[in-house]
Design brief:
- The protein has one domain: P-loop containing nucleotide triphosphate hydrolases (Rossmann fold).
- 36% of the residues lie in helices and 20% in strands.
- It contains 7 helices and 8 strands; from the N terminus they run βαβαββαβαβααβαβ.
- β2, α2 and β3 form a beta-alpha-beta unit.
- α4 runs parallel beside α6.
- The two termini are 32 Å apart.
């Protein structure tokens, strides 16, 4: 590619990561090198098994095997359902160990974008890292400035911050019309997990 663009997949609908993974497979199929950095995800998702076997794709996960949530974000019923699998924190003060891990992921993103080794760099769920107070505008600025002009940058996650939206060349909003999660269906292996 002669010129790379910044793509953003955001919104409350399903399919943001799925679209980015599809783009990664397409780029690898065309002979490009792809780096996928998944923020807030440990090695627990089905697509990761396949991505690790595709020549030309480098997968990095930056997350803990538990979820985090800001105080007041979850209902009592949701808290009971999540149990020990969620850590609650006051807004603006995420768990320090999680913040340090995300800082390391941001540095890996900067390195990948500056390296010239990749035609495509995907920052999966980076928007959510921002929303959960784990990354801020300064981190986003570092990432955006690290991108080489020929590198395609894809950023996914709900609640895309203005700084990312302002920099984007393409924004796709996944809009939820109906979702079976609202009827109590949990993530299914091979479909959501």
């Amino acid at each position: 590619m002669k010129k790379g663009y910044i793509q953003v997949y955001t919104g409350d609908g399903k399919g943001k990561t799925t679209a980015a993974v599809g783009l990664a497979v397409r780029a690898a199929g065309a002979g490009q090198k792809v780096c996928i950095i998944q923020f807030m995800k440990s090695l627990a998702y089905s697509e990761q098994k396949v991505l690790q076997t595709i020549p030309g794709i480098t997968l990095i996960t930056v997350g803990k095997p538990y979820f985090i949530a800001k105080e007041g974000m979850l209902t009592e019923e949701q808290l009971k359902t999540w149990g020990r699998d969620v850590v609650i924190y006051p807004a603006g003060h995420p768990p320090e160990e999680y913040k340090k891990m995300i800082d390391g992921g941001i540095q890996k993103a900067v390195d990948a974008l500056q390296s010239g080794r990749y035609g495509v760099v995907i920052l999966d769920e980076y928007n959510m890292a921002c929303w959960y107070d784990l990354a801020d505008d300064n981190d986003t600025e570092k990432i955006l400035h690290a991108r080489r002009p020929e590198t395609e940058l894809v950023i996914t996650g709900r609640n895309a911050p203005e700084k990312i939206l302002d920099a984007a060349d393409l924004i796709t909003e996944m809009k939820k019309i109906r979702h079976y999660f609202d009827q109590g269906v949990t993530g299914r292996k091979g479909i959501e997990d």
